[in-house]
Amino acid sequence: MTAPSGTKAAQLTAIEQSGWGLPFRFFQPHNLAFWVYLAGVGSGALALLRYFGAGGTFYTPALTGGVLLFGLYLVPWLVLLRHQNRFTAQPGGLLTAAFAWGGLAAAFGIALPANTALLEIWTKLGGTAFASNWAAGLTAPIDEEFAKALGLVLLIGLAPRLVRSVYDGFIIGAFLGLGFQVFEDVLYVYNGATQSFGADQIGSSLQIFVIRGATGIVSHALFSAVFCAGLMWVLGRDRADRNVVRGVLTMLVAMVFHFAWDDMNGLSGNSALSVVLPFVIAVVELTFLFYVLRHAARRERTWTRELLGPEAEAGVLDPALLDAVSGLRKERKAYRKHVRGRRAARHRTAAASDLAREIARAGGRETDRVAHARAELVRLHQRS
Predict the structure, then answer these.
(1) How far are the Cα atoms of 219, 238, 252 from residue 178, in angstroms, in the given order?
(2) DSSP designation for 242
(3) Which of the four pLDDT bands, split at 50, 70 and 90, describes residue 207?
(4) CB neighbour list of residue 26: distance below 8 Å, 6 or more residues apart
(5) What digits encode the pLDDT tens for the residues 89-110?
(6) What is the three-class DSSP state of 308?
(7) pLDDT tens for residues 327-375?
(8) What is the rounded CA–CA span in Å between residue 312 and residue 308?
(9) Phi/psi at 259 (5° precision)
(10) DSSP secondary structure string, 134-161?
(11) Contact of 303 with 327, CB cutoff 8 Å
(12) Contact 226, 254 (CB under 8 A)
């Protein structure tokens, strides 16, 4: 039996290290992480039923409106995150588990009772005015970020070979935060209806949907993506990724962002600055998000390049396409110029990503699906 070539050996190593292509198995009765996960999600679900159950019948229009509106709100988020989940993509079942933990365990099982208790403590310590300006920002960044990140730790326990890199933490963190965000938004709709004693529930739902939907771009999904990326740097599941200092600082920055967003009124002093400050904070947060994403995906891009190495060596894809499919925006933009067409570049990079995914699923072996994905890439190349 002949030894694999250098590029083939690198490909097999990348598949092994990344875990790309492995299925996610949720039911693991012999795994403690499985039972802790069930307990967390179960307690959150019970807390949700208790919270909404008391006035659920009277406030049905508000609840229904909130669920429908923020259910639709999920669609563009899922499209965006699907695009970002292109490097060694995580299985849908794993991401669904992350969403459920964020929405039920983190939001209702942990954060809701913890926030209630801590807000009362801040009111007693600093008075009503202090609590109004600062209590939310001194509470939520701590219990909410760690509650969501606990879901990442449990998913590592459930899928240790799938959750390996900082990029995995970034994507899973975004789904944890998105679950928290959507369930919390429905809670805001319900609370808004109770505060107005059930008057104009549909109108109140729409108003909260517009406000929360607009601010949601720089909310929990962003905080958790950054925080969980930092946590993965600290944990260093892949030795090449381990950087404790960067990880701790990244987690702290996510908490500072959360603090600034929750205590906007306290920071602006209810002055004219309150009009400008949200936009300034949003720009800073998005800039840092892309900085983290760029560094988080470094290992993933290397894996993608190594995984497609034998295909490039065989001439299935040229060096420019390999750079584009394993690179950043700069490389993709250069490839668009190379092929003189945005549409052609998009189709070819998508086909190359499909080929990488099929090779990973096959464990580097030749299968009908791999052959089909390769033929499709060759066909697109010959059309030009």
Answers:
(1) 9, 26, 20
(2) -
(3) confident
(4) 34, 93, 97, 158
(5) 889 999 999 999 999 999 999 9
(6) coil
(7) 888 888 999 988 888 888 888 998 999 999 999 999 999 999 999 999 9
(8) 6
(9) -60, -50
(10) IIHHHHHHHHHHHHHHHHHHHHHHH-TT
(11) no
(12) yes
